[in-house]
Amino acid sequence: MEEELDRSRAFAKDVKRIVVKVGTAVVTGKSGRLALGRLGALCEQLAELNSDGFEVILVSSGAVGLGRQMLRYRQLVNSSFADLQKPQSELDGKACAGVGQSRLMAYYETMFDQLDVTAAQILVNDSSFRDKDFRKQLNETVKAMLDLRVIPIFNENDAISTRRAPYQDSSGIFWDNDSLAALLALELKADLLILLSDVEGLYTGPPSDPDSKLIHTFIKEKHQDEITFGDKSRLGRGGMTAKVKAAVNAAYAGIPVIITSGYSAENIDKVLRGLRVGTLFHQDARLWAPVTDSNARDMAVAARESSRKLQALSSEDRKQILFSVADALEANEQMIRDENELDVAAAQEAGLEESLVARLVMTPAKIMSLAASVRKLADMEDPIGRVLKKTEVADGLVLEKTSSPLGVLLIVFESRPDALVQIASLAIRSGNGLLLKGGKEARRSNAILHKVITDAIPETVGGKLIGLVTSREEIPDLLKLDDVIDLVIPRGSNKLVSQIKNTTKIPVLGHADGICHVYIDKACNMDMAKRIVSDAKLDYPAACNAMETLLVHKDLEQNAVFNELLFALQSNGVTLYGGPRASAILNIPEARTLKHEYCSKSCTVEVVDDVYGAIEHIHGHGSAHTDCIVTEDPEVAELFLRQVDSAAVFHNASTRFSDGFRFGLGAEVGISTGRIHARGPVGVEGLLTTRWIMRGNGQVVDGDNGIAYTHQDIPIQA
């Protein structure tokens, strides 16, 4: 998912001159050859920055590794079979550097030429920086190049370095290209230094360790003694230890530094947009303390532990928790409303659409309704431990298939405070741990509702059963926890759902679009059609189950029904867009696409030949959410109900009924248009999985000898 703006990275907006250092592990692949695709993408990024007016200075490693690979190849080609049987001597590092540097620069020149950018090679030695005249000339030369939009490419001139072993010796003013990049950033007065590595940033331990966490902001006083480093760079002489040392030196001298992955083609752009990628080093980092790195894993683990305590309670005790939550909502009504009014006022001041502001509002009636729905959920049959199937496997060996909680749920939902209550109550009823991230517009409302609900949970379970994620910055870390979080349910925009699906291994349940259709058949009841169409579009236009496309049978083109339907919508402020046929008939603007979710007082209208045309249109342009037919012809209705492949299909009923509460599920965590696990409005049952319980009296398999399988179904007693 897309990273959120990080206020601590506000410096990015003032950046003009950038030093980018690319490590050997980024420049080359595992074989030692150039990683052409990765390096090409980097050059494209730098060329784009150059054209946008940024002053770009590149420090590139990789010459020694490339030279070593080339010389080994030549050595192999020119060796006899007898030579290959002898121990191979180590290649001279300086010779490797000389051979590799020309090959590396040739690639950069070729690539930048293709991008209409001029690059220049500058090789430096440690001893050169001891000369004031050299440093003055370096500044003048680089300034002249940058004024001409030339990208200087720096590297240490290892081939003639006086260092004893240029790939090992760490003495001198600089000792590798990380420290060279930091030195150049200071000497050339850069605004930002970006160190590109083969990992996402600095971790609390080796990145391969699943317990290691990405450190978003390095605070020397906090992290200096906490982190442990893995192995040094695979091919170069640096590694994370060298990068951190260089980053700290530059940052505490006033140059902000970001260590991030060079494997992502967009990371440099994200850094310059102030997004939270990689690890930030900044001289003012300590002023932002106390800085807490994402405690995503701790939060998820705590939710799982609390969920197990919840499952261990009796059915009556779990039921009582929900009654306590309902009572707490009513008892704290005024406090909830006070916080909610601040959210609403902020939303109005920000100019949010009326429909979005409306769903923020927590009226006394809505709070009462929420409390009632929680009590109704409590009174439903206990979903945990229900025997779904009972089988006699063999004499005296009984197997039961039972319902069981999924574990820990991560729900990302829109700015609707009432959704938090519904989701939390469903999690409690189903015995699941829960992590919640609501829309920022409802921040205060969500916080007070979370407090009211968790305070009502007994200490024997713990309030950590339900965790509230307060920043989008924590979501990427949570989405990596496929070993702790069992299901993600995103509620919101198509973009949100798609981003989450593309950035996690955790199963995702939800829908990306709510493109709901109402088809008016030629055999419709006119008054009924008007009521259903008006309700489906106008009852709550922003809802995912609102009508987005009205399909009308062609025989109604010249019929009063068509005109009355359109008048009912337009007179209530609905803007109409037509499909190819309807726009020509009605003289209304043609829709940009027939697959569009408006979430407002707008909808698409199209004319179809018959019910088959309606079904074809729905399958071609719908989202498999909820679709409806209005007709008095039972055969046509059954055809529609059988053949429309959507999560919910209605006959003579508004699409707005596609809702967990209205279905009698007590509430819903979302609506799924997928076909695995749960489909349609997801209530308690959608948050359950199954377990197998076997009871025997000493039976063993023993190669299936001496046991007679019966596999008889046993009636389940109510």
TrEMBL record:
One GO location term (cellular component): cytoplasm
Chain ranges of the Aspartate/glutamate/uridylate kinase domain: 16-261
UniProt pathway: Amino-acid biosynthesis; L-proline biosynthesis; L-glutamate 5-semialdehyde from L-glutamate: step 2/2; Amino-acid biosynthesis; L-proline biosynthesis; L-glutamate 5-semialdehyde from L-glutamate: step 1/2
Aldehyde dehydrogenase domain sequence ranges: 292-559
Gene3D superfamilies the record matches: Acetylglutamate kinase-like, Aldehyde Dehydrogenase, Chain A, domain 1, Aldehyde Dehydrogenase, Chain A, domain 2
InterPro entries: AceGlu_kinase-like_sf, Ald_DH/histidinol_DH, Ald_DH_C, Ald_DH_N, Aldehyde_DH_dom, Asp/Glu/Uridylate_kinase, G-glutamylP_reductase_CS, Glu/AcGlu_kinase
One Pfam family here: Aldedh
PROSITE patterns assigned: GLUTAMATE_5_KINASE, PROA
E.C. number: 2.7.2.11, 1.2.1.41
NADP found in the keyword field: yes
Catalytic activity reported: L-glutamate 5-semialdehyde + phosphate + NADP(+) = L-glutamyl 5-phosphate + NADPH + H(+); L-glutamate + ATP = L-glutamyl 5-phosphate + ADP
Keywords, in A-Z order: Amino-acid biosynthesis, ATP-binding, Kinase, Multifunctional enzyme, NADP, Nucleotide-binding, Oxidoreductase, Proline biosynthesis, Transferase
GO molecular function: ATP binding; glutamate 5-kinase activity; glutamate-5-semialdehyde dehydrogenase activity
GO biological process: amino acid biosynthetic process; pollen development
Record family assignment: In the C-terminal section; belongs to the gamma-glutamyl phosphate reductase family.
Function comment: P5CS plays a key role in proline biosynthesis, leading to osmoregulation in plants.
Protein name per Swiss-Prot or TrEMBL: Delta-1-pyrroline-5-carboxylate synthase
Organism: Eruca vesicaria subsp. sativa
